[in-house]
Every structure is written in C-alpha cells, then in structure tokens.
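Tutorial, part two.
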Amino acid sequence: LGKYLPAFGQAVGLMQHDLFHIYTVDAHTLHLLKFIHQFRQPEARKSFPLASALAPQLPKPELLWVAGLFHDVGKGRGGDHSLLGARDVELFAEQHGLSSRDTRLVSWLVEHHLTLSIVAQKRDITDPDVIREFATLMGDESRLDHLYVLTVADINATNPTLWNGWRASLLQQLYTETRRALRRGLDNPLERDEWVHETRTEARALLAALGADIQRVDRLWRQLGEEYFLQYAPSEIAWQTQGILDHHESALPLVLISAPSDTMAEGGTKVFIHTRSVDDLFAATAAAMEQLGLSIQDARIATSSNDWTLNTFIVLDDQGRAIRDPQRIEEIRVHLVEELDDPDDYPHIVTRHTPRQLRHFKVPTRVLIEQDPANARTLLELTAPDRPGLLARVGRIFMEQNIALTAAKIATLGERVEDVFYITDKTGAALTDPEHQQRLRQRLIEELDVTQ
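Running the prediction step on this input gives:
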C-alpha cells in the first residue's frame, strides 16, 4: 500500500509518542478502516448504535474509506497534519478521477477529522451559539453524517480504552443538536430566548403531570438564571426541581443520583448536589468523589440568586463505566451527604491522602487562558499529567485565586488530562486582568507540573 500511495508510505512504522496512541500511524489507519467496515455489520448495532445506523446510509461509502486512509498521513512531516493530509487526498482524487464534489468532501473530512471530537469534549455544547457555529462549519447533514462515523472509528482505532459511554453520549448529543440546527436552517437559528422558553414549557408540563405544585415550581425557578435552562434538558430540570421541592425542610445537602437506564448503552451516572454555596465546595466534592473511586467526566456549576448550588457531575467508575447498581448508588449518595454536610470539614477533605498511586509520566503542564465573550466568562484549558486528586487540587487553587467555576469538561487521554474550565472572578465577571491570569497560570503549573 505504501508503494502505491507514497503519502501513506511515509507513515508506515511511524510511532506516536504518547500512551493513548497504542499503534503506529499505519496500523492505526488500518484499524480505523476495519471499524468503518464493522459499522455496516448488524453486530455493531449494540456497541455503536448511531454509527451503525448512519454508515449503511452513506451513498458512497468508498469516500469515507478514502478519507480514513488519508486522515493521518500528514503526521511526522512538520506542520498541521490535517491540512497536509487534505492536500494529499486532493492529489489522490485528481489522479483517480473523483468528481469535484467528491474531492471536496474527502478533503474536508481529512481537514476536519478532529473537529467533532474537540468541540464535543472541550466546548460547551449546551450553548446555542456553539451549536450554531458548529452547524455552520458542517454546512449540511451529509458532511455531519460522514464526520460522525469517521470520528467514532478514529477514537476506537486510537485506543479502545478512550471510548466509553460518556464520550459516546457527548458525540451523540453534539450530532443530534447540530442536525436539529441544520434542519431548522442556518438562516433560522433557535435563539437563546426561544431555547429557554421551550425548555421551561416542557419541564413545567412534566412536573404538572407528576402532580407538582406549579406555584412552588415557579417560585423556585424565579431564583434561577437563564443559563440553568440552557444547560439542562426538560426531563433533568423536572427531576431536579421535584427533588428540591421534596427536600426543602431538610438541613442536609440534597444529593440526587441517576444512572442511565438498562436499555442505554451510552452515558454516565449523574450526580446532582443542591446545598449552600460556600468556598471549597467544588474542591471538596471532587475529593470526596475521588475517595469513592469515581472519575468525573463533566461538571456543570450553577448558583441560584439566594446562594444555593445546582451542581451536576457526570461520573464513571474506575473502569470507565456508568454506575448502575442501586446499592452502590445509595452508598455514593450517603457518603457525599456525610462529607458535604459541614463546610468546616472541606479543607480537611481536600488535603487528605488518597489511596491510589500517582502516575509518574513526564507530561508538561500547560495552561491556556482565553475569553468567551458571548457568555461573559473565561475559558481555561489545562493539560497536565493524570493523577489522583487532580480536580481537588485545581479546585483548591481556584479558591486561593478567588476564581468561581461555572462549568468543566474533563478528558483523560492515557497518561495526561486535557480539561477545560469555564471560570469567572468572584463577582461573576470574566478574568481579564493579565496579572491575575498569570498568577493563576503560575500556581497551576507549580502545583501540577512533574517535569520541573
């Protein structure tokens, strides 16, 4: 193959120097093609329901094979491998008589083969503006369908341990919301006010069907900001609202836990925490979950106007699976209530010893800080060596630096983490002071870097 395709030949035997790429570039590519083939077989429906539904519907499956063959051939040559591969596949298409339309598709797929994964794992896909921007890049449903199948194959061919229920659900959520935006039309986007109104209406109908006191519901909702109704689906809002109303006379933190149903192969276990908003709460929660052997995949942090938290964490067990066992779920709930009921204990919870071993890998800590002006907040992207208690350490530094967390997206890739935090200062304003940014960046590197 390398002799017939010189660009592929340059990638034969090319090592990828990290612990989450377990194959050379050529071996990874052949594994990717194998997954694309498997998605067209009936036995793939259980493990890859959406990919196996889309793959047989692609009108020219050979175009996906071509894009898969060239997606990584640009590696090891300097520069952006996606752009280099896109140029290589255009030359291949010209030499083999592909139409200009088919050439544009395969070149676009190679150039953007990482985009869906990056947006799903690092951007706030509950934000209508993010969906609108991504849908504009897709342009049409055909590109979206091809890119989704290619992305799922790419992740699974990189390292089977990277694919879990939560990562699958993120990709599917982004796919579904983007398809919805494309079907509405890019010139007819769903505005934020419409999104909030539709969500509130559907959640209120669900609560009414459950017999909830709608006047109490409305009083509670008046304390919640618009962002809350952008972040959650109507069913989640109904579940959380009913739990808060039923719990109102208790002084203990409210902890609600929901596992994916037995019929859902994808997703994580949701942990909702409603308690007084105090310093160290995020750090203490992260430390308590670490003690339970839970891996946080996603965090949504919100505070009502009367300073009560509405925090949701998506967690998996140490094998990357959702927690479904009712007894285990109750153990987690009881432990979190006991740990979080006294804020005076939070510093001890954050600093206590963790029983798992620290992994010693020479991964440099990098901190990127940029603004998210549409949402008046700051985006902090952290790359660091994976270790027990990492989020608790980050939370403690945020507390030291007077940083408030509004959302977090957590990704573990072999020996390193690539986490994204949406932050503000304590007044709720974006972090724009360069000196404050530098202090925060320096503290994170001092605390987390193992290469110094």
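The chain is about 50% helix and 15% strand. In part three we will examine how such features are distributed along the chain.
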